[in-house]
Amino acid sequence: MLKKRVITALCGTFVVLLAAWNNEPLPWFTVFAVVWGMLAALEFYRITAVSRVPVLAGFGTVWTVLFVISPHFNFPFLIPALLAGAVVISLMALVFLPQKDDIFATWAWTIAGVLYVGWLGSYLVRLLLEAGINWFLLALLAIFACDSAAFFTGGALGRHRLAPRISPHKTWEGALAGLLASVVFCLLFTLPSPLAVPLGGGQAVLLGLLVGTIGQLGDLVESLLKRNRGIKESGNLLPGHGGLLDRMDSVVFVAVVVYYFWLAGQLLAAPW
């Protein structure tokens, strides 16, 4: 299982970075994100039973795609319009559905999938398009380093359970190692190189702490979802890792954090 996990991680990282690096003139990463988003949305709707109402599952998947591609369109009110449309159109659709029992719970899961997979997932595309490839690489490599350090350190040295009722295998030792790894990788992006970003040492440490903390909390959120639904993995498309939904949990949370950190940094004249 460990061998499969490592091989899948290396292959997946290579594909993601290749797509991101060649996102111009054709938006290959956006194409990749759309395919991933569609399949992840279908996994989400399967484990939350929205798939039993094909109209809502189809609507949620389409709206997920619209959110993922939204950063390519510079319309000032596009996101509010997509949010309003997701709520209004899906609610109106309920009137015409034959199924009435628990339909509002199903509707709530539909909107949750759109927001979780689509809206949060769109920040990966937005980060790449607006902040650039270096910030995108920082976000992905920092959280990948965090996840790997937490996994291997927790497995070797972990003694104190982090959240036993949510994810029994996660430990405080692993979490701290992940936090340290994310800080180190953020600091590496301040060194003179073609991949450097305009961050001071203090900013890099702060960003690393945010990435490591929020990324691991995002992982726990997805673990809580699976435990709530009584499943171990969201799918089996990724050997050693589970489903696509399992691999996007911490990444989308980190994309949001790094994007707004970069955006806030545009207001600061000098790194610190």
Task: Describe what this molecule looks like in 3D.
- This protein has 272 residues and is mainly alpha-helical.
- The chain has one domain.
- The chain is built from nine helices and two strands.
- The protein has a two-stranded antiparallel ribbon with strand order 1-2.
- Strand 1 and strand 2 form a beta hairpin.
- Helix 2 packs antiparallel against helix 5, helix 3 runs parallel beside helix 5 and helix 6 packs antiparallel against helix 7.
- The model has no long low-confidence stretch (mean pLDDT 90).
Helix and strand succession? HHHHHHEEHHH
Number of strands: 2
If you average the pLDDT, what whole number results? 90
Residue share in β-strands: under 5%
Query: What share of residues is helical?
Result: over 70%
How far apart lie the N and C ends? Answer: 43 Å
Instruction: Give the domain tally.
Output: 1
SS class: mainly alpha
* Silhouette: globular
